[in-house]
Amino acid sequence: MNRTLAQPAKAGISRSAQTGHIVLDRVTVRFGEDVRGRRAIFDTSLEIRPREFVCLLGPSGCGKSTLLNCIAGYIRPSSGKVRVDGRIVERPGPERGMVFQQYSLFPWKTVRDNIAFGPLRAGRKRADALAIADHFLEMIGLSGFSKRYPAELSGGMQQRVGIARALANYPSVLLMDEPFGALDAQTRAMMQESLLRIWSEVETTVVFVTHDVDEAIFLADRIVVMSAGPGRIIADQDVPLLRPRSPDILTDGTFIRIKKSCLAKIRAESLKAFQQQNR
Ligand SMILES: Nc1ncnc2c1ncn2[C@@H]1O[C@H](COP(=O)(O)OP(=O)(O)OP(=O)(O)O)[C@@H](O)[C@H]1O
User: Fold this and answer.
1) Cα–Cα distances in Å, from 110 out to 13, 113, 130, 150, 197?
2) Which fold has domain 22-95+171-278?
3) Which H or E run includes 87?
4) Residue 68 CA: which ligand 1 atom is closest?
5) Is the CB of 156 within 6 Å of ligand 1?
């Protein structure tokens, strides 16, 4: 696997190769005022190693986004702890970049200024911030679009800018909540390949939420399947497919075996979730 550093020296940034270690220790999240509040996640422990690419799968409403938001620091667990690189997560931070399904770019800023925003806010000089933006624009293949505004780009291009914007903070962890969910099938397939190429150039742990089993297997080193609410981990499956990956692996025997296993688990949990909703 070719995992070279994304030229941080040029931008004056260096990071230990071992950052991006995530530990969830018996995390429960309740929404509501007291212990009778509805539990979205229950007593969940999980360890994700530096630079791992982990996909979270599970039925709708099982707590995937809640778990991601706990790592991001947007939600504080009702009990248990989340640690990233040994530090307890208490609030959002630039070392944990987030990419949402909705592109969430600043519509009034150019593509280049959207990407430069994080480094500027972190106190970098404008010239440095723009150099970082240019570096990531090149990485995502949109150097020719630096002066455009988000509304002038396709959905896939906007999402590439969203990824570049998160990476411009040189995060140790990249959290992605169904980032390709709003894209058509062809664009989505191109984005998956593009993401793997980008990931091969940066030293970042990725936690990626999706409903799409093919997408999860294509991208991940490891797939974590969650139960119907309250979410718990019911399967933790390695994906032993070689990298770099091409769409040919969709017909590989190992791919199909993992797909059957994941689909069976998700179907069983989706049935439970459906029955819970109709009670
Ligand atoms: N802010 C909130 N207040 C109250 N309940 C919430 C809140 N956020 C999420 N929930 C509830 O927590 C549960 C888990 O939601 P979450 O969005 O994490 O699931 P999900 O697996 O990401 O769902 P989907 O796949 O449909 O996006 C759901 O029952 C949801 O209604």
Assistant:
1) 24, 5, 12, 7, 24
2) Rossmann fold (3.40.50)
3) strand 87-88
4) 18
5) no
Q: Tell me: the pLDDT tens digits for 4-31? A: 333 443 444 445 568 999 999 999 999 9
Q: Whose CA is nearest to atom 23 of ligand 1?
A: 61
User: What is d(CA 44, CA 70) in angstroms, rounded to the nearest whole number?
Assistant: 12
pLDDT in tens, 94-131: 999 999 988 789 999 999 999 999 999 999 999 999 99
One-letter identity of residue 217 = I
pTM of the model as a whole: 0.92
93 lines ligand 1 (CB under 6 A): no
Print the SS3 string covering 96-157.
EEEECCCCCCCCCCCHHHHHHHHHHHCCCCHHHHHHHHHHHHHHCCCHHHCCCCHHHCCHHH
SS3 179: coil
Distance of CA 39 from the midpoint of ligand 1 (Å): 10
Amino acid of residue 188: R
Whether the CB-CB separation of 134 and 18 falls below 8 Å is answered with no
